[in-house]
Amino acid sequence: MNPFEPGKDFPPSRASGFGFLWVIVALVVVGSILASLGTLVSKGQVVIVKAKQGREAVEAAVDAVVGYGEANGHLPGAGEAFLATLPNHKDSWDQALLYLYDSQAATSDEISICSRTSTSLAITGTRSIRDVAFIILSGGNNYNIQTANSSADSHWGGAVSTPTTVTLSPKGELADHYRGHDDPGGASVRLEPYDDIVQWVTLPELQARIDCANSQASAPLQILNTRLPAGEEGKAYPVAHIYAEGGVPFESDKYAWCYTGSLPDHLHLSVSANCGSDADKTLAPYALVRGRMDCNSGQNAPYPITFHVTDASGNTRSKTLKLEVAASPGQCGADQLN
Question: How many CA atoms lie within 13 A of 249 on its CB side?
Fold first, then answer.
């Protein structure tokens, strides 16, 4: 019989059986790859959603702190006051939100925020911002606080009373500038792509949001004088009063004064020449310049003198005034002070 005779079946092929098997294997591999891709896409979507929720949590915390300031005239302190202010004190990764704030803006003085003109908190790095009132931070998806804090030791957050700078890194840059985080592994540094969520409010922004313009707060602290009376060689110097106003004065309308700069011999200032700390400054309603000019005092004129004044809320202002000295040939001689 002719096996190829029309109407007869071909003998079964082994190759066709193996081909079918390879098709099944290929489908399984492709299915596995697609499943893996689906898992990766799903995980990526989760990260995106979590990041969005994290930003929303930080934004809500910022709004809550501003609302507290509007209602109370000052920022909440750390601990219970801060936690009670927030709708949720944790981010989308179930980690506690961190709060760094200027201590003077959190005093109980009702006009504290509106009377302040500066803060001790600043931001640098990707941005350069001064006079920051407070910062809210989330460690992000990697559970790692990577934002540098110049005053941090074992904790990130809390009150700032001395000049403190917070450094931001570009998103995705390998960073771990903050060495005070609680790392379960005990490592001091975990270099990872920077993903911290950081938001802040500056003092001017805070004052605008709580409508300080329509409050009963005092005007900003300032030194009023624009010049010093000129002196004349060999003659008594006309007494000069240096005044300040605004801010929150100490009792009896006094301020804490000090000065920097050199004075002619026999000329004196009534306030401290030591500006190292508030305790070294002179508490007085004004600074007083008096004395007598030497006959040689004009040789080094003018004398730049910088006056520094601080109010009860910690606001500080400085102004440099130049002391001019005129020659007086007729006066110097018998009356010369040597």
Answer: 17
